[in-house]
Every structure is written in C-alpha cells, then in structure tokens.
Design brief:
By secondary structure, this protein is mainly alpha-helical. It folds into two domains: 17-59, Single alpha-helices involved in coiled-coils or other helix-helix interfaces (Up-down Bundle); 66-184, AhpD-like (Up-down Bundle). The chain is built from nine helices and no strands. It has helices at residues 17-30, 35-39, 44-59, 66-80, 83-97, 100-108, 117-131, 138-146, 151-173. Helix 7 (117-131) crosses helix 9.
C-alpha cells in the first residue's frame, strides 16, 4: 500500500487465503482493491464484518436495483460530505446508469436530477433517515408504498441509508481516501 489510504497508522496484518482470494476477485472485476477494504486489513474480523454487510446490502436479493442502492449511497454520502463514498459510489452510479450527469447531480443535489417519482420518494426517505431519523413516521413509509415499494423494499432502503451513514462517519473520521481510479471512471 504505497498511497495513503487513511490518516491512521494501522499496519496491515497477514490476510487469510480466503481474503486474498476476495481481493483477487476485486482486482479482476474492478481493476483495483477498494481502499475501504484496504483500510480494514489491520483486523480481518472487522474486514469480514464490513464486506458481509456491504455485499448483502448492495449485491444481495432486494426489490431495489443495484442502481437504486448506489443512488441511496450517493445521496446519503452527499448529505454527510463523505469524500470517499461520493467518489466511489458516484462512479458506480455513472456506470450503472450510463449517465455521467446523474452521478454528478446526485453528488451535488439529488433534487436537480432527472428522477422518476419512485426514485425521488426513495431518496427523500433516505435523506430523512440521514438528517432526522427520530422524526420518521408512518406517512414517510406510506409515501414509499404509494411510489410502488413493498415493506421489504422499505426495510432495504432504510438499511442501505443507515449503513452508509455509519460508513460515512468512519471514512470521514479516519480521513479515508478514495482510489484515484474512481475519479475518472464512467465519465
């Protein structure tokens, strides 16, 4: 790890063959090992917990598309001003949508983006979970149902927003730096 990944000095530990294989898959599919994973190499148990949660939320079965989940990640990260996640997940939104303008609009202000009513309702909910979680009420969940989301989808929207609120705080607190490759991808 030659580039600075975080402001902390946490030396990487020897990783298991299973984790090395996971990193090899990342290199093959993404062309890199995301710095968020590299940041956890000081403690493989924490790394596994992070990857299991991330993979379940972002890649697992859901009524939400991969793009919708990435959109939530970007909007939450925009509110929290998380440099790492805005850069990494902004690239994912650009890739999955095929629209570089969508990724940039979501980073700056999702209300400026050309969104469907469904997407706007989803992102309004994610925004409220981020800014005012104690003020969530049935009307917020009903607005999602009215936009076509199931109760399982609502759980997934809430879980995705909550996960990125947590990871944004960790990334900002330790000054996690995104892989430089993300900045130019899918533009």
């Amino acid at each position: 790890m030659s580039e600075k990944i975080t402001a902390l000095d946490l030396p990487a530990q020897k990783l298991s063959d299973e984790t090395q294989k996971y990193f090899d898959i990342c290199r093959e599919k993404l062309g890199l090992v995301p710095n968020v994973l590299q940041a956890y190499t000081f403690d493989e148990t924490k790394l596994r917990a992070f990857t299991m949660s991330y993979n379940d939320l972002m890649l697992g079965d859901s009524g939400l598309s991969k793009l919708e989940r990435e959109m939530i990640a970007v909007v939450v990260s925009s509110i929290n001003k998380c440099y790492y996640c805005l850069t990494a997940h902004g690239a994912s939104v650009r890739e999955l949508s095929g629209d570089p303008h969508l990724g940039e609009a979501l980073v700056m202000n999702y209300r400026a983006a050309d969104l469907s009513d469904r997407q706007r309702a989803m992102l309004d909910f994610a925004e409220k979970v981020t800014e005012h979680p104690g003020k969530m009420e049935e009307a917020d969940r009903q607005a999602l149902r009215d936009a076509g989301f199931s109760d399982r989808d609502i759980f997934d929207i809430a879980s995705t927003a909550a996960f990125f609120n947590m990871t944004n705080r960790v990334a900002s607190a330790i000054d996690m730096r995104p892989n430089p490759e993300y900045a130019s991808q899918w533009r």
